Structures are given as C-alpha cells and as structure tokens.
C-alpha cells in the first residue's frame, strides 16, 4: 500500500491503473478510521481491482462554531488499519493541495440540505458535495462507497451523481449494529448504563413504524407509533423523526417507491441517529 499526498501523484496512479484496465473503488473518509470505514474498504476490495481511500478533513463542510481544528487526526494509525482492510492507495492531501484557489463557483445542495441533520448545519452539505465531486474527478472510480448511517449525506450524493451524470455507481453499505440493534457509533461510549439500556428502543421504533406503514401506507400513523415507542421506553428527546422519499428527501406521494425513515434522538446529552431505507415490497 502507498500513501500519496498530491493530486499529481494520485492522477499518475489512476492513469496507470486505467491503462491496465483495472477497476477502481473509492472510499472517501475524514480519517480516524473505525469498523464502519473498514467494512466499506473490505467491500470495495471485493468489488474492484484497486481501492483508493481518501483521508481528508474537509474544512468546507464545517461551520464556524464546529470542531474542524480539534477533529481527530492520526494518519499512521489510519494507514495501518487501511492496509489491513485491503486498501491499495491512501490519498491524504493538505487543505492547500485540495483548495489551491477559489474562483467563486459553488455547488449548492438546496432543499435536501435544509431538513433532518442539515437543518442545524447550514452549508454543511454544500461542503460535502464540493469535496466529493473533486474526489470523483481525481480518483475516477467505477464505484464509490458510503455508509447508510449517514443516510442524508448518501441521498444527496446519489442525487448529485444522478442529476449531473457522474460516470460511477454509488454503493451504500448497511448500518453495522450491536446485537440488540443499536447502530454502532463512536458516540455510544458517552451513554450511561441506563441510557445504553434505553437506546435500542430507537431501532425498535423504526421497525414498528416501517411495519405499520408497509401494512397501511399511512405515514402519519406510522410516525406516531414510533414517536410513542421512543417516548414511552426512553427518557430521550426526539430531534426529528420523518418518513421521506429516497433519495430525493421529499414528501412521499402515491408514486413514491423508495423510502427513508430517519430519526435523531438525544439520549441524555448524546445525540443518536438511525434510519431504515426500504421499498413497498420490502428492503
């Protein structure tokens, strides 16, 4: 495995790989790798001849009061973990390398960025699509890999690829869960014993809502049942709980055939997110 830090080095590698008619899988990350990232890398390795993983803490997706400077960075650790998962090349550029100039042209996500997690993070998803579009052009992957845990981000990226005809496939990898259904997250360690015992009710509530909706097609009743399950079985506070079309993240209609059921709940001081993506005929 090699680590490259410049666009020129990456492009040279990509050109040679294309010349050899090998397929490329891209795993975009901000580093500080965990099991979710490694699952993406292993899946990419199984699907492609070559895996490129980007490790870049992207400043354009951080707000003025967010933790860009303190965001954890450990490239030697990440390099070791990435190699163990079959990554062939790590692209770890500096901010100056990725953004040497600003000509003023921006990608604006629009409505999809104003709801769910985006409601409290204006500009965040504009920064996400900016860096992802650059990485797609630089790595020229056949496939790019993202985790379903960040469903809003994946939906926005899928829309970008669809609407602007990017020549690649987006592969979404299912949420990795604990045995009791709680979505794995680095934030789970902040839960007290009591809070950790309550947290699986979030996933249970999503399943209750999904089952009711598939049976009745009544979104309002489904959301009400999930809300009741969370408020009855936890001391948590619901930030949002919505059923939307996927990947457009719009209000559902009789014509909608793919759905996102998404939730964010504060259990104590810890904000947990989870979701289900499904179709009328099942997931």
Please specify the SSE layout and strand pairing.
Elements lengths: L1 E3 L2 H13 L4 E6 L5 H13 L2 E6 L19 H10 L4 E3 L3 H4 L25 H16 L3 E5 L3 H13 L5 E5 L19 H6 L2 H16 L2 H15 L3 E9 L12 E10 L2 E10 L4
Parallel strand pairs: 1-4, 2-3, 2-5, 3-4, 5-6
Antiparallel strand pairs: 7-8, 8-9
Helix pairs in contact: 5-6, 8-9
Protein name: Pantothenate synthetase
EC number: 6.3.2.1
GO molecular function, one term: ligase activity
Counting H and I runs of at least 4 residues, what is the number of helices?
Answer: 9
What fraction of residues sit in β-strands? 15-25%
**Biggest sheet architecture:** 6 strands, parallel
- What is the CA-atom radius of gyration, in angstroms? 20 Å
User: What is the CATH homologous superfamily assignment of the largest domain?
Assistant: HUPs
End-to-end separation? 36 Å
Largest beta sheet: what is the strand line-up? Answer: 1-4-3-2-5-6
Helix content: 25-40%
When the domains are counted, the total is 2
Q: Classify the secondary structure makeup into a structural class.
A: alpha/beta
Helix-strand string: EHEHEHEHHEHEHHHEEE
Coarse morphology:
globular
Estimate the mean pLDDT confidence.
95
CATH class of the largest domain: Alpha Beta
Oligomer: single chain
Function: Catalyzes the condensation of pantoate with beta-alanine in an ATP-dependent reaction via a pantoyl-adenylate intermediate.
Subunit structure: Homodimer.
Protein name: Pantothenate synthetase
EC number: 6.3.2.1
